[in-house]
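re: that chain from earlier
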Amino acid sequence: MPNLQGVHIFKSFEGEDFSDGTISGQYVDVTFNRAQFQRATLDGTFLNVHFHMANLADADLSNGTFVNAEFTDATVTETQLKQAKALVNVKGPNGEQL
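^ sequence. v structure.
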């Protein structure tokens, strides 16, 4: 159950497993490529963040703020995304604007 917190700017996480963990803090210009977030809690602020082919199955996004975020080919439902605290200019897994 790895946790990730703090401020992360211009960073890339490749294939990391955050399942069952808590992701909090601020993320600016960050890419999560093929990362695992199953049953994780995303409590942070995500600005210009790209979740590319990330697995967010059963992740709790309800306390997350997502601005200019993309969930390209990610495993996540529209219902999960719409439970977020805030969505501004967010694209879902099929490129749809939410």
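The mean pLDDT is 95.
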